[in-house]
Structure prediction request, 573 residues.
Amino acid sequence: MTWEPVIGLEIHVQLATSSKIFSGAPTTYGAPPNTQACAVDLGLPGVLPVVNGRAIELAILFGLAIEAEIAPYSVFARKNYFYPDLPKGYQISQYEMPIVGLGRFEIRLANGQRKFIRVRRAHLEEDAGKSVHDAYPGLSGIDLNRTGTPLLEVVSEPDLASAAEAVTFMRGMHALVKFLGVSDGNMQEGSFRCDANVSIRRRGTNILGTRTEIKNLNSFRFVERAINYEIERQTEVLETGGKITQETRLYDPDKDETRPMRSKEDAHDYRYFPDPDLLPIVITEADLVAARAALPELPAQKIARYLTEYALNQDDAEALISERGIAAYFETLVMESGDPRLAANWVTGEVFAAVNRARIEFSRVPVSARELAKLLVRIGDNTVSRSIAKQVFEAMWSEGGTADQIIADRGLKQVTDDGEISALINSVIAESPEQVAQFRAGKEKVFSYFVGQIMKKSKGKASPQQVNTLLLEKLNEQT
Amino acid sequence: MLDEAEVQVIARLARIGINDDESPTLTLQLSRILALVAEMNKVDTERVEPLAHPLELVARRRPDVVTETDQRATMQQTAPATHDGYYLVPRVIE
Prediction:
């Protein structure tokens, strides 16, 4: 019996605002407990929430990026439940009229095929606080700093057919919100987390099976493992004649399993209703015009352009758009150096390697794209060879300075004078009678020995192409 | 018509404690309210736009500016128990 998984994701994206969604309290991460929770966040009597305009703008920006309908009129609703980290007894969310309607997002599958994943909706809501269960015996500690932090909950249709597809979609969404500046996407700090709805059905049928919801997955790896575990568990239950219970489950990374989370008596019944404290949001044509103007070229569009305009391969293109800052750096480099392939090789090669060695964010790369471009120009006009250019780059990285200055100061200019190179070749040939004999006897491998010796004598500065040509001439001459 | 078990569920969702004496009366009263709602449901609303808010106004948007300072000391004066800046509550575990 073959089973087909049906998976949908709900992704909670923390919006990159300075203040909360309904109050002027700060959203900074890591402040001492309860120092960023004001009267509105605490839900004290008599307070009135007022919506943060920036949160609305960011939601629209995201909506446009997934080609979604932006609702001209949307409404906040109260989602009612009791928990100590939710002081009002309800969460302000959106229910019937979310700000972002049906959209779609393209993912690239492992086999290279493309697939559109539909996004059913994305709505604005406030985050709850944080409970600490292990610090006080018999008690829970409550920190309400996170209360009221703006979230955009993105709900996909159940279009994902495997754990791997789900992770690809989640990664794509993560890159997109970071790219747009809608969220910092910091998963350790909870800025991007995900619930997965999983069910399975017999292959070839259209009827959906009973689903379970796995809550609060905060890493790509856990999403993949939790979904795979759940698929296996459901398969086993169904194949042994059991039934799936619709329930919420939690993933335990230590045991690599999911477990039921809430007891049945707390079955969800949120009794949503429109929040009378908040007036409807109306999105005007002016809002949309402003959002369209703020919309950058999207990752998918950049990839397509890099492939056609710059003739890059898919992997390089993807690496270059993984962050907006990297794409901007690369594009400046292309513009200033005029050589897209060389620019791509350098960013994905030398620059990425140096970033990893230094363990820094890409935004902190000390060599600007403009300065690196000047070095690439020097490779192009044969002033330096590619391997010498690496030395120059390392010097620019660690000590600063311009490429030309370093090349001049250290005498790294490539030797391109035929006479000079011939002299080097002659001396190496004279010193290596044994290898010359071997070469003449047909052992062509020793050719690289000669090249190595010549490059060493020139301190790496001899033009490798010229060395190759001239050396071959000389060795053949003497036979 | 509601039954008493349903009323118990509703009470629990609202965290309202009701005792067995009150239960029949409340069940009757709530059922009457629902009967009234059922009566209203008969009205043809086909051409009526759903109303999200009684005021015909639009949300005013607040600029994204931090205006609040740390008021923890004041806020925690009314809390029954606090420690190291946390509010303490009877243990809740999922």
Notes: Chain A has a mean pLDDT of 92. The radius of gyration of chain A is 30 Å. Chain A touches chain B through 55 residues (CB under 8 Å).
